## 1
Amino acid sequence: MKNFNSDVEAADALKNTYQELSKEIGKVIVGQEETVKLLLTAIFCQGHCLLVGVPGLAKTLLVQTIASALDLDFNRIQFTPDLMPSDIVGSETLDNNRNFKFVKGPVFANIILADEINRTPPKTQSALLESMQEYSVTVAGERHQLSKPFFVLATQNPIEQEGTYPLPEAQLDRFMFMVNLDYPSFEQEMDIVKSTTSNVKTVVNKILGAEDIILFQDLVRKVPVADNVVEYAVRLVHKTRPNIEGASEESKKFLEWGAGPRASQNLVLAAKCHALINGKYSPDIEDVKAVAFPVLRHRIVRNFKAEAEGMSTEEIIKKLM
């Protein structure tokens, strides 16, 4: 664990560490710089991420590569229709002496890759709720603490809807960011094909350990924020609520439900980290705008009019900003 003489020194170290991590991840992942930035921001903010993209965009590889660059325990859970809650959190079994013994499930790790989380029924999806919010699981009335840091990085395929179970709003709200992955550019796809069809094996070095991550998480929360920045974040979230007094015309016209207070908290927290990794010691309104899309896109619900007119969530957020 590194020792720093001041918070300013720690802030500089966070910026340098972020650049090192991005470089290591870039050995394997071609492009996707913004996605990598958001995932690392979520980690430094003690948040969870939902990655949405069509098959073949290296969602799973991206999470595995980040886990490789961090000296943390990593488990992958492949969500399927027959997966049970006990397959995730663990269960009590009888040992040789006929005593009940708790056998830990794969959720007992620092980084959890919840692969295709919408493939499993809500009963199993909800098994992650307590761990994501409380950093613990309860089995047979007994509470078991998870080791920190703890992150859930879930993936979702937006194309196939047959046999899938959309995440309920309460669980979507637990994710700090929803990150949409786009197709790579022509040049990036050329590089991907060249690197993945050869026999060259890339080694990703471990940059950061658990204690250092916890230290940086504490540092992010210490970052001072001006009142006008907090006011902008809260006002932006209030604009998404069509049913309150003073709601914006866009939300009244295109939204059925707006974002809750967790959106305001995540906007400010993510803006703090965004400022630090860009060499600033306090966030401004531009930092809030930089993280607004991934924080808000899964927390607002469009109405029929918005869908009929082809108004995307991103366009609505842009109008609100």
## 2
Amino acid sequence: MTHPDHDRALESALAAARRGFPVIPLSRTKLPAVRSPHRGETGSGMCRGQCGRLGHGVHDAATEPARIAELFAAAPWASGYGIACGRSPHYLIGLDLDRKDGVDGVTALVDLAARWGFAVPWTRTVITPSGGRHLWLRGPAEVIVPNSVRRLGDGIDVRGSGGYLVGPGSVTTAGLYRWDPPTASMPPAAVPKRLLRLLLTTPRRRGARAQGAGTGAGTSGGTAEPLIRFVLGSSVGERNERLFWAACRAFENGHGDRVAAEMVGAAVSTGLPEREAESTVGSARRHVLGGSGGRRSAGAL
């Protein structure tokens, strides 16, 4: 006999799949519920389901009812589900707007829209347990939108290709995710063109020179942005290794402390637990800078 939260999540996931949204079961921690079949294996970090087994996170996402039932049957502890972004037919882009700890992502998005001259779309919206919002937008099929954490502004995370949003009807350790009632039956609105450009580039005020241009300064600019993208591209089995490598390069280049939080956020968006991601970045810092905070010589590495 399954738990009522499991049954509710499965029912909600099937309803989303009927509308063309690929889904996966999630645990109460918002991580994929089906455990990786490659735990303890070496050389399997790039497997995205080619092995034919379940447990490859967002790469398992499906719309076929029988496949979804199989996924949920493999994880009777699942209490929620994720909506895979960047997939046909909607090519979903998710804006995760936090409202907690003094951060207001909703206001930050409104300010961003006013600054860049686009309207925040009236679209399908999910209310998070903390009072935040998930805005669902439809992207163009030919464009790959990357995941990002706070790159557009405080409290604004982006879920694009390879990412997922917690679906309404999911129960997590934080509480219940639910529809914003007036939007529950709406299709995702098309992403505004100016917002899409910001999602694909490093935003800065029009007419303003990029801070630290060419020097690698700035949270996501310069040499740090490719490292963030490298972390976001991690798959199950390689997330810690890629995060450690990227964090080491960031500390070697002198901006590790500036981008540490963003690296942790990027790793969390791939499914790595936050505490584990913070520990990995801390290990990279000690490896490069040593316990005293000073840079080690090349011979000491």
